[in-house]
Amino acid sequence: MPIVAKLDELGKPAWIALMILGFMIWWPLGLASLAFLIGSRRMSCWHHDPARWQYKMDKLQRKMDSAQSWMSGNPWGGNPWGGNPWRTPSSGNRAFDEYRADTLRRLEDEQKEFHEFLGRLRMAKDKAEFDQFMAERRNSPTPPSPESPPQN
Q1: Cα–Cα distances in Å, from 25 out to 31, 43, 105?
Q2: CA 53 → CA 41, 60, 64, distances in Å?
Q3: How many angstroms separate the CA atoms of 82 and 94, rounded?
Q4: Fewer Cβ close by (within 10 Å): the C or N end of the chain?
Q5: What sign results for the dihedral spanned by CA atoms 96, 98, 100, 106?
Q6: Is the distance from CB of 43 to CB of 12 less than 8 angstroms?
């Protein structure tokens, strides 16, 4: 019985072991076994079965539809709170929910004002440094230009 038939009976692990052993003994032997495996399609992951690919595409489409319905707020699509998925769920107490919404809005406004303040602070610092540079440049003596003749 030929060695190829015996390896086919053992399956993929035997072929992988043969390929690794080939690389360990002499790299061209391992490369030849790899080329043989690819060319003969002995590894089932290289088989292009249209039904298998169609199943994967259908599964991906179902996942995309589910994610889209969750993002749109469809209560049957997986979003447990309904509405905007980025919003916090209701606690059941309207007064507390309003207080929380007002507090979050106030904090967002303060954060925006703080970032604007930091921007103005950076601008003032940059302007002060630029003004200092310009003042030093104006007050420094000008070096003689290379085109003018030396004065004796």
Answers
A1: 11, 22, 69
A2: 17, 11, 16
A3: 17
A4: C
A5: negative
A6: yes
